[in-house]
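Annual report, structural modelling task.

Input specification for the cobalt (II) ion complex:
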Amino acid sequence: MKKYSEIEKINYEGPKSKEPFAFKYYNPDEVIHGKKMRDHLKFALSYWHTLGYCGNDMFGGPTENKDFGETDKMAIYKKKADVAFELMDKLSIDYYCFHDVDIAPEGKTLKETLTNFQEMVKYLKTLQDKHHKKLLWDTANNFGDKVFMAGAATSPSADVFAVAAAKVKACIDADIYLGGTSYVFWGGREGYDTLLNTDMALENDNLARFLKMARDYGREKGYKGDYLIEPKPKEPTKHQYDFDAATCCNFLRKYDLIKDFKLNIEANHATLAMHDFNHELRTARINGVFGSIDANQGDMLLGWDTDQFPSNVYDAAYCMYEVLKEGGFKNGGLNFDAKTRRQSNTMEDILLAYITGMDTFALGLRIAFKMIEDGRLEKFVEERYASYNHGIGKKIIEGTTNFEELADYAENLSSIEVASGRQEYLEEIINNLMFTIFD
Ligand code: XUL
Ligand code: CO
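The model returned the following structure:
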């Protein structure tokens, strides 16, 4: 196998290629339905997993080193940035995402931390311009430092609330400066472990107060992108307030924020909430809050957020179907919130992992288009609900009937038929579309 240093660019070689460092399905500039694949998919590199994570787990330290030969703190982070853009170039990835702590070393004081951050934001801008890359979103890490042990916006300490605000403010400024199109709020530790020590009502109200202030600050400064909430049911806290898409919608409606916030749906968070990935995407869509995607996958035999690179083509196809039905990404994209396994500890593995994830979603995109073109699935669903197109069904939809009329109607029915749901037939259609994709 080739060495990382010998690989200039990952090229598209097509499905028959056996070259590990080549795309089999992702052909960035191929136009499908009027748009290049790279613009349909809007892949983003996640800074934290790619340039930060070093293989640690609960039982062991790092299995790789990402200081890239540097010793001075600032030099390490500049080198990380150089490598990030080098990787994006090699992989034809146009976007990236980061937390504040991913891109710059933390200082001894908040002021020092923010100064380092701002210096690195300027450095990223020069790299962005040089490499023609864009920021998809950034976010504040308001969960790692010990001051956030009881939450950030939901901390019992108002001082911590203020620290969290200062960090989000700096990240919104950076987002504007770098031209980012979204800003993500993932709950972090916005939740609780036991009600014995928790004022749940105040914590929820404070979270809403925090989000409103963030929204107002950004809009006043001219930020035009989306604000996104990223649902997750648990981990690190036992009960996260942004449990899943439906819980987030309830929260946003309660606090009159539904017009200003959308969702960033992560596959592994969906499955931790005991939902299919496409259930969460559909929930976001039908509530008008679909924003962006954190692409990864979990291991169904493990109960935690394993953040694996996606390789499940079925899930990717169902995901891309939702994206296409939404009319494609607008301010969002597909961020690989995914890390290589502890044992996959080389730079070559990072390339191979992205290739697998990107090819999986490229296949997903191609299959999703086929699902739509083929039309059998949509026709089936349409016909399944045809009773609402006429007669009493039409009246229900139009709101021109009531319980008296419905009861009367029901009593006079001579037979009632509910047609078969034909799940197995539909699953066979998916397999058929999938395995004839290149015929
Ligand atoms: C954590 C997670 C985060 C967010 C950004 O599970 O997904 O990385 O995506 O803070
Ligand atoms: Co995520």
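The chain has 16 helices and 14 strands.
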